[in-house]
Amino acid sequence: MLPSEQESSGNHRSALAAILREFSDVLSTSDEDLVRTSVVRHAIHTGDAKPVRCSPRRIPYHQRAQVEALLDEMLRRDVVEPSSSPWASPIVKKKDGSCRFCVDYRQLNNFTRKDAHPLPRIDDTLDALVGAQWFSTLSRAIGYWQVEVEGQDREKTAFITPFGLCNALATFQRLMETVLRDLMGSDCLVYLDDVIVFG
């Protein structure tokens, strides 16, 4: 006799709760308890390029308090640090006008050697899911803050790995593939900070 759908659902919940308790030491319950990875560091290879120094962009007066609050939060969490670097890239607002800390690294990116680490092909990812019946999706919260910049490159940017650096995607994909190597393809697929677990 098969269990009813309600009994089966309750069994799955109990099993999931047990797994979450077992691995609670590696799961985050808020942005406050996220730590940096030691698996990879982000490198910014600029060769012998002279430092790029851009003029700051105007921040509207009504948004300054939001920007200051974001900077204070990032300083408190050791995501940014005070700097006297000869390199400088401007802070910009997102295209949709919302307040999320964003740096315009286009000038720095022009001098940065590109990382050839590939991102997964979407069609291959979809093909790998054929036949799976169960799916769970995960997305790394503020994942780019968790990847540290190589020491010799920190003066180029005081940020750990902000969204705008040209090789940030390759660095992050490399991190996720390294961490989930034994599960890739058979149990999960990774696209940057998004993970799908299937079975």
From TrEMBL:
Organism: Trichinella spiralis
CDD domains: RT_LTR
Ranges for domain Reverse transcriptase: 92-198
Pfam families per record: RVT_1
Originating gene: pol
Biological classification of the source: Eukaryota, Metazoa, Ecdysozoa, Nematoda, Enoplea
InterPro entries in the record: DNA/RNA_pol_sf, Rev_trsase/Diguanyl_cyclase, RNA-dir_DNA_polymerase, RT_dom
Protein name: Retrovirus-related Pol polyprotein from transposon 17.6
